[in-house]
Structure formats: structure tokens, C-alpha cells
Transporter (Vibrio panuliri), 428 residues
Amino acid sequence: MSSITATSQLEKHQYKKIPLTGYDAGWILLNIGMAIGAGTVVVPVQIGLKGIWVFIAAFLIAYPATYMLQNLYLKTLSESDLCEDYSNIISQYLGKNWGMALGIMYFIMLVHGMFIYSTAIIYDSASYLTTFGVTDSVLSESVLYTIAVLSALIFIASRGEQLLFKISGPMVVVKVSIIVLLGVVMIPHWDFNNIKAFPSMADFSRDVLLTIPFAFFSAVFIQILNPMNIAYRKREEDKEVATFKAIRVHRISFIILISIIIFFSFSFSFSISYEQALEAFNSNISALAMAAKVIPGKLVHIMTVLLNVSAVVTAFFGIYLGFQEAVKGILVNIIQRFIPEDQINHQMLSVGTYLFIVTLLTFWVSLGFSVVIFFHIASPLYGIVSCLIPCYLVYRVNKLHKFQGLQAKCVLLFGLLLVISPFFKFFE
């Protein structure tokens, strides 16, 4: 037994000597880029509404838990014999019914992402056009404007897939650079009078639970971990080396990401008052669009616009690629019940998919549903997929029993918090 332990320790020591490469750096950028999106630019609004003390408590709970749940998720992926999509991995562990159920949950997560980003794009772009004097009225109320913007973005996403992949790295560098610069530029506008007094313990506890999903969504990039794991498994002959590299990239990505987000969020929260945060909430716009309204200086305006466009639009493009394939799959499944699959006109199917998605997203945006509230609603779904299912695997599947312990218990508890957190909205 001692010889096995010694061998294991020797292998770990050898793995630590494996250098970081440009390929690893590319995945670090993609992980960070996946996380920086609507969650990042909306979280300062929630901080402004609930106060800095609530946010400190929320991120002390959410950020370590987010790291642990992604780490556990990655480890459950790495133990599978065949490394494919996560629903297939679930099928290997628990059977096809579980795999199909998880596939449905993932589709709902994609729908949630598309709704979030399409709403953010329309409302924020309309706010910018009004702020900069391009339009007199807010165009987000116009159905024609919504159709035009969404049609253009979806056309680009569906036609320029290879181009989108090629520019993703530089776009992430732009996003990260602007976030850091914005945090620095906001420092002269800090006003510590914006820090609210510490609330009563009842309000504090409630608001922390309501803010946990925002902290989680500002830092989570679980959607990209399985593609990363698959890429390393294909690249490395040794499964253990592939696992070591994937886990190391995840760790480095998370540390860099959290450092950036905390600085950015605190800088914004010191610069925007409660009243301004409330206006952003009521106008359904992000902290960046609000900053362009209230903080003087062309540099801040230019950077907020660039960041919002790069963060939200690239996230929209990234999610759309998977969403389009999922919608096509559903349509094919329905159509082939009436005609043979080899008789399906795939060109017409692509056009039909395009029109369906434009119509669906236009209808959703026209409802004017709050992005902030929609984050609350989605947290139970992420709690189930990201936390509860991996924990269930750890306790159900024999080969995953080695991951039982404090980390799994913390992830289970955090998953339950994500599931119940929206219900505390009723106590506001």
C-alpha cells in the first residue's frame, strides 16, 4: 500500500514539471472569455441594489463553491472511458434515460443563455444610441429594431463560424484588458458614500442568498470544461496527463478571472449610487450602459461600449452555435416522423431554423423581462446540472467514490442554495 502511495506521489511530482504551453494559454483565454459576459456586467447592478456587505458575503460563499463544483465536474468527466459530450458520459455512468434527461436540461440552459444575451444586446444597444444622441427615443421598444439587430447577428453567427473561432482569442484579450482599464479609470469617481449601512441580519441573510446566483454567474465557465477535457484527451496519449493539464488550466483560469472580477465589481460599486443602480435595474440595462450615462469622459464611454459589445455579442455568438444545432436536431426529430430523413430539404431546414430563432428571440425581447430577475430563475437549473448531478454521480458510481469528501459536500450544499435562492425573492 505504501509503495502505491509513493508511486502516486512520484507521478504527481513528475506532472508538476510539465510546462505550460501556448495551447494551455489558449484554453485559459477561452475559459476566461466564456465567463466574462452578461453575468459580469450585470453583477455591479446587483451590488448597487443590495450593498457592498452583501456582495462580500456572497462572493466569499459563491466563488470558492464555484471553483469546487467546476473542479468536481471536471474530475467526473475525466474518469469516463469514452470522452464525449456530457450527456453521453452520464449515459455511460447511469444509462440512456439519464443521458436523455441531461440533454434536455442542457438545451434549457442554452435557451436561458440565448434569452439573456439577446435581451442584453437589444436593451444595451438602444441605451447607448440614446446616450450618445444618435436617437431621440429608446429603440428597444421597437419590434422592427429588435428584428433587424437579431437578424443581422444570427446571420453573421450562422455564416461566419470559422471566422468567429479565429477571432475569439483576440476578442477575449480585448475584453479582459478593457475590464482592468475600466476598473482603473473608475477610481477617480469612487464615492464611499455609495456604501450602504450594514442591513439588519434578516435582510442581510435574504439578500446574500439572492446575490449568490449573480456571483456564481459572474465566474462560472462550466459549459466549456467538457470541450476542453475532450480536446486534451484527444491531444494526450496518457489519460492522467490530459486530466492534470485540464485541471491545471481550470485552476489558473479561475484565479485570474476572480481577481479581475472582484476589482472590476468593487470599482463600479464605489462609483455608482443606489439610485443609479435602481435606474439600471428598471431600465433593464447593465452597469456598463449606466456608466456611459452618468460618468463624464469620452474614454469611459468608449471602453464601456467596446466591453459590452465584445462581452455580450461574443457570448451570444458562442451560445448560438450550440443552440442552432440543438434547434435543428429537434426540428429534424419532428419532421422525420412525417417524412423520411433522406427526403428532408436541409437548405429549407436551415432557413426555417433561422426564421424560427429570430421569431422566438424577438418575441422574448418584446416581453421586456428583466435580465436580473431571469438570472434568479435560472439558478435552480444550474444548481441541478452543475452541482447536484455531479454529487449524485460521486455517491452512486463506484469508480467516482474516491471524490467523496468535504469538497463534494460543499458542492452539494451550494447546489441546494442555488435551487432555493430564487424563492427568497418573495420575502423582499
